Amino acid sequence: MTRLARLRRSFLELFPERHLYVRSGGQMKGYVLTSKTQMIAAAGVSAAALWMGVCSAAMLVNVLSAGSGDREIARTQAKYERWIADRQARLNSAVAELNAGGGSNTALAANIEKRHAALAMLLTDMKTTPGAAAALTPVINRAISSNDSNPAHIVAAVGASQEQLLDAADTFAKSRADRLRLAFRLAGLTPGEYMPKGGALGGPLIESKDPRALAAVLDVDEGFADRIQHAASDMNEAHALEQAAHTLPFAKPTPEASDRSSNFGVRVDPFTGRPAFHSGEDFSGSRMEAIHATAPGVVSFTGARNGYGNTVEVDHGRGLKTRYAHLAAISVTVGQQVAVGQRLGGMGSTGRSTGTHLHYEVWLNGRAMNPDRFLKAGDYVQQAE
Fold first, then answer.
1. Is 206 exposed, middle or buried, given 0-12, 13-18 or 19+ CB atoms closer than 10 A?
2. Residue 118 backbone phi and psi in degrees, to 5
3. What torsion do the CA atoms of 72, 74, 76, 81 make, to the nearest 10 degrees?
4. For a FRET experiment, which of 13, 23, 37, 326 has its CA 20 to 30 Å from that of 364?
5. What Å distances lie between residue 60 and 48, 49, 66, CA to CA?
6. Quick one: DSSP state of residue 258?
7. Which helix (H) or strand (E) holds 320?
8. 122-162 confidence digits (pLDDT tens)
């Protein structure tokens, strides 16, 4: 009590009662600023300053992180463009020297030059793909390191580096597409159902389904055109599946540290002691621990459900719905758009519950799915990225 009294006296000394006099129109008006009023005003100004500081810091962090990502993309793009420009310049020089000398390698050089243009189109499509830089940079560096000045040797070296780079691009594209297809199948989904209708993936290299037609358009041999088209098709399919994956409940509903206390399927009911079907997964944690949306969607239900307690349901489209039950608090409303990772509420023990935990369900076309399969699929998608 003595300390509180001292603190009160300190505040009164800092904010003594003040009198403000305002003269207007020949009249004098007086205002009394009490210590309490001054303290409230000072607290409001301090809170506003703190809020502005936090917001400014958050904006600065976002700008710096975005700038770092943009710089990385720009460096990758510049590296590809330097490689393309360097190969093109050396090819032009070699072709010119071979033409001047009437060499027999002129036709070969011209064919490699046309291949180079087709390969440049593929690299342009792949340059912003996550992981492409790590997969292709070693091959590009080996190609750039060649310093032979003999025109015939330059043509041969460029041809060999083209083959190596195309193999690396094809392997990377196929591996990326296969991993994403596996992620969808692991979740019990059919990848083809999440591809654009009619198979229209876009991209100039796969508009024609006939390699002979593409070879004619690119003016290269049919075998090379077929390999270019195959790599472009895999990469475009990977892009389409990756975009679809970002709309599916592949994220985790609780922080990484949360433990799974009960799995999907038949288990012993903690209340009856008899076997019963458990339509979701349980995650243990502390009271009011944040519960996050596992995919973007629209909140379709909030409130109490029989046995579930306080519940939030999110509709993700395509027949997919997620349910978050036993919450202590709900942070969203029906009809609200939510993003992946957005807080839906706090973990609790409402409804038919023996302790603080989250009961999480995934539904597809009215049928309960195993949430663990979706979480494992999310891990595969992250590895693909």
1. buried
2. -65, -40
3. -170
4. 326
5. 18, 16, 10
6. P
7. strand 320-330
8. 766 666 666 666 666 666 666 555 555 566 666 666 667 77
